[in-house]
Amino acid sequence: MVKNEQNISEKQREYWKKNIRLIITLLIIWASVSLFGAIIMANPFSNIPFFGVPFSFWLAQQGSIIVFVCLIFFYAIKMDRLDEQYDVKEVILTEKDKKGDES
Asked: How many CB atoms lie within 10 A of CB 54?
């Protein structure tokens, strides 16, 4: 374990710090919307009509899911940019590569 940590360069550490920071930020946003907006603030939001239903109900049933899907797209876009910035490339294994590994 210690040997693996020594092999990671400073650039790789910075990449992972940014990746983890982005994940934590997006999880906080999602938790805030789904927990705080739909459950904790249910009573005050229940007086606000939204698409014909109370806003807290809509937020719990559809809003948090919509926010979650939007966060997934945002994460994908941000990670693509981060990958380009740090020159990170995906490795695609094909059948030819697998045969080459076996021999």
From this structure: 16
Asked whether the whole model's pTM tops 0.85, one would answer: no
Asked if the model's pLDDT at residue 25 lies above 50, the reply is: yes
| 20-53: burial string, b at 16+ Cβ within 10 Å, e else | eeeeeebeeebeebbeebbeeebeebeeeeeeee
Please give the full DSSP string across 30-70, using - where no structure is assigned. HHIIIIIIIIITHHHHTTSEETTEEHHHHIIIIIHHHHHHH
The three-class DSSP label of residue 86 is coil
